[in-house]
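Hey, sorry to bother you again with one of my protein questions. There's a protein on my desk that I can't quite get my head around. No rush at all, and the record is pasted right below.
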Amino acid sequence: MKKRIISLLACILVFAIVFGVGASAAVITTGLPDGLDESCYAGTSAGRIVVEEEVPGAEVIYDLPYCGDNSTSYQKLHLVLPEEQGEEKLPVLIVVHGGVWSSGNSEEDHRVQITDRAGLHALKYGYAVALVDYSIRNKENEVALPNQFYEIKAAVRFLRSIAEEYNLDADRVALLGESAGGHLCNMVGVTNGEAEYDLEELGNIEFSSEVQAVIGQYSLCDLKNENDSMLTRLCGVDVATMEKKERNALIASISPISHVDETDPPFYLEHGLADKTVSYTQSCDLYNALIEAGNNKSELHLYPGMDHGVAWFQSEENAEGFLTWLNNLFGIET
């Protein structure tokens, strides 16, 4: 009873936050789907999976270097194709893993993050699914933002470059990311058409990096309130020594909310109200900005009791929600 009251109060607070700026054009969920109970709160999305065990029969092409001959060991993707294919071109869902921008790439035996499971559910609807690795920051690799944005855009361009070979639909490309991966996907989506985020040296510059939809799970959207230590780690520069104007410009360059405009694709944002790692208000703020820019096909889904990275977000039950939205957007009959 106490938990129900708390959840009700949380919902009231959420509506005050979201509707307080006049957002009303799209669906907002503040409860669990029918048939689910609080047992879905348990478990985290840690661990690894083998793609062939998740989707037996699917064709998997491993280790495609998406930056051409200049690709590093990080700059690769695994392309998963549905077992049954007709003549119609395959829409593409690109999955970008989380991991605090410093972990999560596939391992030598090709085991991928368990969070990639969410994207693999799309295979049954005839999608090609690309599981993307990217440069992660560690002791051996000092890569920093915004380089990862450039890489995901390079992966999009690469997939368009091989569209004819694998029967991919270059006009229906969507991104799916959770946590840090969601931040990267959000950023790639809101920078559609911003040429400075497409680096020629990463290859296939003659192809577009624009995407037609973004699914972002519990991710940062505005970094202005992050502390200097975190920003320094992410960006590879000593933020504390920067002038205020320079610091603000840096933060804007890596904050999706700073790039929202009327040219952005539709977004499907989901977040747990009990997230102690990234506040659900981050998704609320991005949603509001999208709606204010006229993006009325975007949706926001908020779930009481859900913390960061709960395994249910990657379940088939949850995937059905965003895949139904995406199928409708792409004109896919189910």
Notes: The domain at 52-330 is CATH 3.40.50.1820 (Rossmann fold). The chain has ten helices and eleven strands. Residues 157 and 208 are 6 Å apart (CA to CA).
